[in-house]
């Protein structure tokens, strides 16, 4: 898997992704603001060996949820917040773990954090299972716009 800063074409593809049922929570809107965020230098496209877009990772403040920030849940030194999305056709097929591991390896090499932190919607048991297997543990929770979130952290192995 290879990673590079998000291109306009990739951002335009991602805003068209539609997740099924309860996971539609993760759909992007197609506003100019969304495109601007996807292209602000914090989002990286994840492509397979044939250069096909299979997902993305974002790092830093864009990976945080506003209510978690208000509650000061994103503090600490040498902690990198990550967000990620797997192309809808790839979800639920057992590729989440390898996708996450590739993103963790990229973050370790690119940013050299001591810890990684993510916020996941509490209803997304499938994702939380993947994160727990990778070594993330839940540290706190909060509600943002009626949706419960869990904050999970892992120590990055050198």
Task: Give a description of the structure.
This protein has 5 helices and 7 strands, in the order E-H-H-E-E-H-E-H-E-H-E-E. By secondary structure, the chain is α+β, with helices and mostly antiparallel strands. The protein has a 7-stranded mixed β-sheet. Strand 2 and strand 3 form a beta hairpin. Helix 4 (96-111) crosses helix 5. The mean pLDDT is 95.
Question: Which keywords apply here?
Answer:
158 residues; alpha+beta; seven-stranded mixed beta sheet; 28% helix; globular
Helix share, percent:
25-40%
The percent range for strand residues is: 25-35%
Unreliable stretches: none
Rg estimate, integer Å: 15 Å
The overall average pLDDT, rounded, is: 95
Report on the biggest sheet. 7 strands, mixed
Walk me through the topology.
Layout: E1 2-5, H1 8-14, H2 32-38, E2 43-47, E3 53-59, H3 66-70, E4 79-86, H4 96-111, E5 115-121, H5 125-134, E6 137-144, E7 147-155
Parallel strand pairs: 4-5
Antiparallel strand pairs: 1-2, 2-3, 3-4, 5-7, 6-7
Helix pairs in contact: 4-5
Describe this structure in a few short sentences.
With 158 residues, the protein is of the alpha+beta class. It has five helices and seven strands.
